[in-house]
Amino acid sequence: MSLTSVSLVSTSEATQIDVFSPFDGSLIGSVPNLGARDVPGLLALARKGVHDSAALARHRRAGILERAAQLIERDAADFAGLIVDEAGKTLRQAEKEVKRCINTLKLSAEEARRNAGEVVPFDAYEGSESRQGWFTREPLGLILAITPYNDPLNLVAHKLGPAIAGGNAVILKPSELAPLSALKLVQYLVEAGLPESVVTVATGGADLGKALVAVREIRMISFTGGFATGEQIARGAGLKKLAMDLGGNAPVLVLEDCDLAATVESCVSGAFWAAGQNCIGTQRILVDASIYAAFRERFVELTRAMVLGDPGRRETDMGPMITEASARRAEHLVNLALGEGARLLCGHQRQGAAYAPTVLEGVDHGSQLWREEVFAPVVMLAPFEDLEQAISLANAPEYSLHAGLFTRDLSKALSLARRIEAGGVMVNDSSDYRFDAMPFGGSKYGSLGREGVRFAYEDMTQPKVVCINQLG
Ligand code: NAD
Q1: Ramachandran angles phi, psi of 414, nearest 5°
Q2: Sheet of strand 358-361: strand arrangement
Q3: CA distance linking residue 151 with residue 75, whole number of Å
């Protein structure tokens, strides 16, 4: 693909990163492999972007974001194909991601138009009656956006859209495993009228990320990825704003009075969407003991019926994982759990990067598989007799993102929603439901900030007060 219209530093020393299809290993594209030595060049581009972006009137920012959304809609099939090719998501999943990206950009355009600040009620307290004024939402300046491989388009849009709406410049470091959708998105933004300098794409691996994180003139780091990386970034960042969208280990509670057929269907999808490489993917399903046998039977039946294989075929339900190493890690964690007494209900076959959807029960609550984010097509079922115990199991991990619960009883749902510790509780949906305008983020350890366009926009802008003292 041509990268000519994108602010991409390419030095003579830069080697290439080849991007391979996780499905058949074919070469999809190459990008420069930048490192710490390229940071000064990247910063020179980005500094210009800080001025160019802040100089765009709000109607220009909104217009560019809307136009980019239209162009992506026109070429949605190309975007979906690229996601399939570089990330191994299935065609249906990729198409959904493209739709969501279009929505994310449209929402960002709305934010640029409407969220400009507020009047400050100075006369609400005694002593300031002669003053009136307002605050405006000003750009932060330069934002570093670091993104993962699993939603290689929409998670990038969740950073670029609000950042541009807020008048910021961005250095974008996409995942080295799937950087091409991000580059294509930036190209389309430029085609829609965004000055090239506003988004500087920095392709490279962890070393490049590390070097960028330490740059003093970066005002905010917006990171989506794993906990270990998030911790490294926090250690290296110094005094910058941090937004951390990290992992999960999502629980779902299934109560006796649920609609069983709909519940199982939603949970199977929640567990295996994007081959389980999904931060809000369902990992632990706690089912009322009175319906456990029926739930398990239907769950395994639907899992076995999934069509695995070529992600580019419309009928495929699940493609490969991103790399063979990821699939081997999943296999290893399941082997450990089996060694600790877990029972395998289906799956656990691996061929290269493809790992069959795997269902376990009887998993020891002390096992790594139960306690940590698995980020793979592996789900654990467990019956419960006592709802209190189920709530404390659901809440046990030190971090959490989303949870799901299924019941027809509204008052039970409301009471459980209050007690489940999560950034979002989905009632009658698995943990895997997200709407791009809602506040999205974690609770407990490592949770810093919220995405969801309005919330990211507010994080990526700073209020500036003007106060007029009327003399006389
Ligand atoms: P990762 O943490 O390995 O990598 C993410 C990005 O960080 C990549 O661009 C990588 O190059 C970069 N990076 C790695 N080391 C770095 C360092 N020391 N300094 C700066 N940058 C560095 O994550 P991944 O494997 O690509 O993605 C999977 C993880 O992302 C899972 O834990 C998943 O839960 C999480 N995730 C979270 C959300 C969310 O919105 N909460 C969404 C998707 C994925």
Answers
A1: -65, -40
A2: 343-346, 358-361, 378-384, 282-288, 250-254, 402-406, 424-427
A3: 18
Q: Quick one: average pLDDT of 71-99?
A: 98
* Predicted local distance difference test score (pLDDT) of residue 472: 85
What is the Å distance from ligand 1's center to 318 Cα? 22
Alpha-helical regions (H) of 137-259? 154-165, 180-191, 206-213, 227-237
- Residue from 38, 151, 245, 429 carrying the catalytic annotation: 245
CB 193 within 8 A of CB 175: no
Find the mean pLDDT for residues 442-455.
95
Which residue's CA is the closest to the ligand 1 atom numbered 19? 210
Q: Is the pLDDT of residue 6 over 70?
A: no
Q: Any catalytic annotation for residue 467?
A: no
Contact assessment for residue 17 and residue 30, using Cβ atoms and an 8 Å cutoff: yes
Using an 8 Å Cβ cutoff, are 434 and 92 in contact?
no
| E-strand stretches of 192-338 | 199-201, 220-224, 241-245, 250-254, 282-288
d(CA 420, CA 422): 6
